[in-house]
């Protein structure tokens, strides 16, 4: 099942004796590089062994997935992934990023896109300063004016503001994209 989940093609399945079996699979290298061995050992309680040899290159349905922050691509986060897994991995990457990026004074949109098609999106809401705190009662137009002024300031901030991405976010993104 582990090999099938990682796009493996079964080549051979033979029984060595009553207690042992030999499974031969052809797997993409990308699927076994990071976490395959650890998962294999945990599934089999440490009994399975793993050996591999290089095979020839094969065509595959791969796509480039970009991560966009406020519509701007972040080159360091772009990844090449199999088309079947793009939707799931894109959703997970965007969710992880939302947890790691700190809220700003303006709204941040985090998107995973393949070409011009957005496959996952999250919005990190803006921090809101209470500009109405010093307005007690009185005319509603004054309150509306203050809120409108704040709204314009946030639009201006969004145009010139940049989003800092913490180093932990890059590490988490590597874990997500390599383990799926």
From TrEMBL:
Residues 3-67 form the Elongation factor EFG domain. Pfam families: EFG_C, LepA_C. Residues 69-175 form the GTP-binding protein LepA C-terminal domain. One of its GO terms (cellular component) is mitochondrion. GO terms for molecular function: GTP binding; hydrolase activity; mitochondrial ribosome binding. Gene3D superfamilies: 3.30.70.240, Elongation factor 4, C-terminal domain. Keywords: GTP-binding, Hydrolase, Nucleotide-binding. GO terms for biological process: positive regulation of translation. Belongs to the TRAFAC class translation factor GTPase superfamily. Classic translation factor GTPase family. LepA subfamily. This is GTP-binding protein LepA C-terminal domain-containing protein.
């Amino acid at each position: 099942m582990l090999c099938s989940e990682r796009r493996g093609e079964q080549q051979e399945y033979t029984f060595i004796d009553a207690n042992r079996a030999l499974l031969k699979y052809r797997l993409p290298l990308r699927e076994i590089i990071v976490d395959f061995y650890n998962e294999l050992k945990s599934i089999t309680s440490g009994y399975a062994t793993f050996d591999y040899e290089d095979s020839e290159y094969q065509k595959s349905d791969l796509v480039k997935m970009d991560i966009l922050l406020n519509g701007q691509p972040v080159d360091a986060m772009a990844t090449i992934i199999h088309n079947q897994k793009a939707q799931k991995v894109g959703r997970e990457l965007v969710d992880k990023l939302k947890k790691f990026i700190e809220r700003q004074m303006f709204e941040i949109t985090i998107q995973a896109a393949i070409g011009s098609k957005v496959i996952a999106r999250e919005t990190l809401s803006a921090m809101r300063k209470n500009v109405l705190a010093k307005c007690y009662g009185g005319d509603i137009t004054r309150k509306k004016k203050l809120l409108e002024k704040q709204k314009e300031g946030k639009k201006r901030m969004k145009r010139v503001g940049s989003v800092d991405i913490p180093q932990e976010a890059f590490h988490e993104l590597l874990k997500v994209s390599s383990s799926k």
